[in-house]
Amino acid sequence: MKQTIESIDVANKRVFVRVDFNVPLKEGVITDDTRIRATLPTINYLMEKGAKIILASHLGRPKGERKPEFTLKPCAQRLSELLGKPVAFADDCVGEVARKAVETLEAGDVLLLENLRYHKEEEKNGEEFAKALASLAEVGVNDAFGVSHRAHASVEGITKFLPMVAGYLLEKEIKYVGGAVEHPEHPFAAIIGGAKVSDKIEVISNLLPKVEVLIIGGGMANTFIAAKGYPTGSSLVETDKIELAASLIKKASETNTNLLLPTDFVVADAFSNEANHKVVSADGIEDGWMALDIGPASQKAFAEALKPMKMIVWNGPMGVFEMDNFAAGTNAVAKAVAEANATTIVGGGDSVAAIEKSGLANRISHISTGGGASLEYLEGKALPGIVALADK
Ligand SMILES: Nc1ncnc2c1ncn2[C@@H]1O[C@H](COP(=O)(O)OP(=O)(O)OP(=O)(O)O)[C@@H](O)[C@H]1O
Ligand SMILES: O=C(O)[C@H](O)COP(=O)(O)O
Ligand SMILES: [Mg+2]
């Protein structure tokens, strides 16, 4: 058991809170603020107790560069609206800028630091960087379930220099997603899509023996289509994972898992909502065309397979749902998940945005802030960000 926020004294203390404000953005505007709202119980509690709250997050993958499109400023603004009070913003998460911003905090004040991933040491779990973050505060809270599968400096390394406990969101995620790990209901289906193919394809092997049905869509499906020897045109394909995909297709038959791949796609001649588009069969993607959504036959087959399920976990949209012409597959699967007589978990920054957009979120048992994190948890892995927290 891990210590939680209620077991520590925070009054008048500087509290470092790792949050996951990696929200979907379109031209600098937040399109889904679920991940920000999800941290409100922790922030409100800390405010009531008179803590000096220092929030830190990553946004996107700027890879150590100060790319302006990855600034956390819009999140400070949104959080301030949600809290109904000002949220200070520091242009850097370490160094003089951060220190000065922290010094001005009074009990109950909230500060958001700029993107942790503007420093490459964050993802490298650099010790000096972790120490620099730790030096800002007297105690730490992890409320960033979505990034707890990453052994990064603000998630894992920092705990060597600053004691960290679990926030309310982390506790809640452990309860629900952990519940699915410990007491899975059968038949159990996992649906995996999205764009983070190389990360997420690695979890499939361990998931196969745990589920009766595994549905693959979105960008993930293309690598499997390539593994079947079909052409993929200019679709997103992870070439160095084609062999792994082939072995997973084989493993599925050995574990008696019903592995469902799309049998048709909506293909486009450019990555744009205005592109020409048409439906083709899974073996019919021509040169110069890319798969941007699953087709109607796949939608139907996936929905049928989900009907008898008792538990469904979904991460990763079935297509580029941000563009209306390629949203039908994701919406169809959202509907099938919502209508199933099952315990359902939908997780991930974009997946949750998709389910919110479809208006079906209130029909899902648990909306999780974790995408990759939920999958790795489900796979049976210990998440480094959780392991590193102080024990009771
Ligand atoms: N066929 C496709 N080709 C390219 N991109 C795709 C395709 N299908 C889906 N996507 C993109 O995948 C992205 C979401 O993938 P991602 O793996 O980030 O899911 P997520 O739910 O946000 O999970 P996480 O929280 O782990 O990031 C969306 O932006 C969507 O447009
Ligand atoms: O969106 C997510 O899954 C988390 O914020 C982690 O982001 P990452 O995959 O870039 O580490
Ligand atoms: Mg995402």
TrEMBL record:
Any single GO BP term: gluconeogenesis
Location within or outside the cell: Cytoplasm
Gene Ontology CC annotation, any one: cytosol
GO molecular function: ADP binding; ATP binding; phosphoglycerate kinase activity
Class of this enzyme: transferase
Sequence positions that bind substrate: 20-22, 35, 58-61, 117, 150
Pathway: Carbohydrate degradation; glycolysis; pyruvate from D-glyceraldehyde 3-phosphate: step 2/5
Binding site for ATP: 200, 322, 348-351
Domain of life assignment: Bacteria
Signal peptide interval: none
EC number: 2.7.2.3
Classification via SUPFAM superfamilies: Phosphoglycerate kinase (SSF53748)
Keyword flag Cytoplasm: yes
Gene3D superfamilies: Phosphoglycerate kinase, N-terminal domain
Main location: cytoplasm
Keywords for this protein: ATP-binding, Cytoplasm, Glycolysis, Kinase, Nucleotide-binding, Transferase
Catalytic reactions of this protein: (2R)-3-phosphoglycerate + ATP = (2R)-3-phospho-glyceroyl phosphate + ADP
UniProt-annotated binding residues for (2R)-3-phosphoglycerate: 35, 117, 150
Subunit structure: Monomer.
Similarity field: Belongs to the phosphoglycerate kinase family.
Identification of the protein by name: Phosphoglycerate kinase
Organism: Veillonella criceti
